[in-house]
Structures are given as C-alpha cells and as structure tokens.
Amino acid sequence: xxxxxxxxxxQDERLAIGTTLATAEFVDGKLTxxxxxxxxxxxxxxxxxxxxxxxxxxxxxxxxxxxxxxAVRPKQIHSVLLSRYDIGMSYxxxxxxxxxxxxxxxxxxTLFLNEPADxxxxxxxxxxxxxxxAYKLPAGQALVxxxxxxxxxxxxxxxxxxxxxxxxxxxxxxxxxxxLLFDLDTVRRSLFAQTDKSNEFDxxxxxxxxxxxxxxx
Length: 217
Prior knowledge:
Distance between the termini: 19 Å
Order of helices and strands: EHEEEHHEEEEEEEEEEEEHH
Shape: globular
Largest sheet: 7 strands, antiparallel
Low-confidence stretches: none
CATH class of the largest domain: Mainly Beta
Structural class: alpha+beta
Strand content: 25-35%
C-alpha cells in the first residue's frame, strides 16, 4: 500500500529543520548505500553524529501521526537519513535492503522538507507490476510505501531537494494483512463518526483486535 500522509510537520517545524539543514555539513550519500546501490546513489546526507536530534524529531512526528500508526503499525522506526539533492543528483532504480542491522525493513517513507516549486526534477518514482507513479509532495507531507518496491529519484535539474527518508519494521510483516487492518479501521472510525458506539462498531472493533492479535509479531 502506498499512502500520502498530510500535515506530518507544522510550518514552524519545517522552518526550524530547514534552517538547521541549510547550515549543516553533508557527506557523500554512498556511505550509507548497499554495495549494489552505491553505483546509482548520487546525493548528500547529514552525518550520523550531526543529525541525531533531527532524526529523533522525524521519528516523533511520525509516531504521533494517526494515519501513520493505522497504516504502518510501526514496531520500530529504526533508520532515518536526512538527504540533500543538488543539481545533477539522483538515486537510480533500487529496492531497499531487507535487513538493516537487527531490524527488518517492511515500510519505507519519504518526508518532503521543501516545496515542489523550490526544485525541478527530483520526483520519487515507485514501480508497480505494470506501471509506475511519480510523487513530489508539498513540504511537511510524507509518502509511505513497501520497502520491497523498486523505486528511484529522478535527477534534480534546478534548485535543491531536501527529504528525510527512513525505514520501519511493522508489527505486521505481511503488507496485505496491514492493508486489511487499515481498511477495517477506516470503516470502524467512519461508523463511529456516523452512529457513535453501536453493536456493529463493537463487532468491528473485536474483529480488528483479534486479527491484529493473530498477525502481530
């Protein structure tokens, strides 16, 4: 499931992060790429020792986002990178590593930190079985997508693209099961908004809880 998350960052949070990144020293993004991805990764990243506070902030804002919680069922946001793409930079076609340290990557996310009008190119392209979709979201919005999907970042031809990217191990490994839980939760919340608590709401809540109990790792 590919899902756009609105309002992940407030305007004040975006401005504060942007100010910090504008004066930060970045290193070659190949340092954090897998052996086969190094050949196609052309960007800059904030060093681990310099970006801890920002990475923690990204984790905090995602963990408080109700749509992220419902769709991803995060067990651990285990890796976050702050990335900069200048003119001529891109990230070629690749799939994310299945294991990152002691954690599995089930869901990837890209949090957009500046406006689409600030740069040309730089679209995040995610491939499906017989098509592909390109994403370039407003600042403060995020895209979540399966870590197993082939994807790429198109070359930036004007300006600078700023993003935070990261990986999540979910309580529910299987993407189809996560989507089913998300759909049931969406219906349950809609029903509650229309009728308040009811027998139907209680049965849906019981089924949702029991499925999560069965599938959670």
